[in-house]
Design brief:
mainly alpha, about 5% strand, globular
């Protein structure tokens, strides 16, 4: 089992031993079901062809990728992984009959913001890899001490030999084929911040892939990532977090590495296969932003999707965006590290600064 091998190799801190045992028991309980699902569906998954290249929503964590994904996925032409698919990636066909049980165990919101959680809510395909592949940066959510190593290997795809790159490609496309099978071959709409620095590798897999890059005020990105890591991982991780200063350095450095990789790799994309939108555009003028995306990428179906977009957006009126307390020290740190992108997108420091 993937989890057992990670525990053996990277260790579990004493406060999380009980949680690790629960994880292992859950994996053990699911294992026979996964074998049965492989037996029943394995050959059909392998035979599935992704005839239409996916549309990838990319952007650094907390840039608004989830918000954009949730809106775009209202268009019924798309197939997109849901919570059920990614958290039961090996067994979601067999476990369909247990939906009521699984739904009863979910919280209403993510915890670090007011985004809703549910079995049918769109999710990142990267999370699916945790249950069956060693090759995902998201293992660092559970084992924080491997964050730098795994970011370079499985996000940037550096320090990885050709054989392992092929293995990552096989692991990644296996899940996409399974999702395509589940949705009877509908085009895939995928949201994955890690893919922001994997454009070159994705083009190798899907030469006609199209990308939507969403960006946001880097000052907000920094504060939001601190909050996400501290809150989101506290009930998941098996190792202690780094001290706060080291956590800040990791966020700053990974943003630089991700955005520099994006800047290099996006140059290979023609204008009809990459569109950039800001979080503020999607938040304040969502329908105009969506029409811009469909038009620039030559995507069909905007008119058909429009009623679904309007209905979803109208239900967001009560949503309250997180607010943050900024200190001059943090603003200076972000300005120094991320000034290149602040200048490019024209963002200014927030007006309210805490002591």
């Amino acid at each position: 089992m993937t989890l057992l091998s990670f525990i053996s190799k990277y260790g579990v801190d004493r406060p999380y031993l009980g949680r690790a045992c629960l994880y292992l028991l859950g994996s053990l309980a699911e294992f026979p079901f996964s074998l049965y699902e492989d037996l029943v569906y394995g050959s059909r998954i392998e035979a599935t062809q992704l005839r239409v290249a996916p549309v990838f929503i990319i952007g650094h964590w907390r840039s608004g990728t989830t918000h954009l994904h949730n809106i775009l996925s209202q268009d019924p032409q798309w197939a997109t992984p849901t919570h059920m698919h990614v958290f039961y990636s090996r067994t979601f066909f067999i476990f369909e009959g247990f939906r009521a049980l699984f739904a009863s165990r979910l919280p209403e919101e993510r915890g670090y913001d007011q985004v809703k959680v549910g079995l049918d809510v769109p999710e990142e395909e990267e999370e699916a890899l945790l249950s069956y592949s060693y090759r995902s940066f998201y293992h660092a959510v559970i084992f924080p001490r491997i964050a730098d190593e795994f970011f370079r290997r499985y996000a940037l795809l550096e320090d990885i030999d050709p054989e392992e790159l092929v293995a990552w490609q096989q692991d990644y496309t296996w899940f996409l084929k399974k999702i395509s099978l589940a949705f009877n071959g509908r085009p895939l709409l995928l949201k994955n911040p890690v893919n922001t620095c994997r454009i070159a590798a994705l083009i190798q897999l899907f030469p006609q892939a199209r990308f939507v890059h969403i960006y946001r005020n880097p000052y907000e990105i920094f504060e939001s990532n601190i909050r996400m890591i501290q809150i989101h991982t506290q009930n998941i991780r098996l190792q202690k977090l780094f001290p706060l200063e080291e956590l800040h350095k990791g966020i700053l450095q990974r943003y630089i590495l991700m955005m520099e990789a994006y800047d290099r790799q996006c140059q290979a994309l023609p204008s009809d296969r990459l569109v950039e939108v800001s979080f503020e555009q999607v938040r304040d003028c969502p329908l105009e932003a969506l029409q811009h995306i469909y038009t620039q990428l030559n995507l069909p179906g905007f008119t058909n999707g429009l009623p679904y977009f309007k209905k979803y957006i109208s239900n967001l009126k009560s949503y309250k965006q997180n607010t943050y307390h900024y200190t001059k020290e943090k603003l200076d740190i972000v300005q120094q590290a991320w000034g290149k992108w602040l200048d490019r997108w024209g963002y200014q420091p927030p007006c309210t600064i805490s002591d």
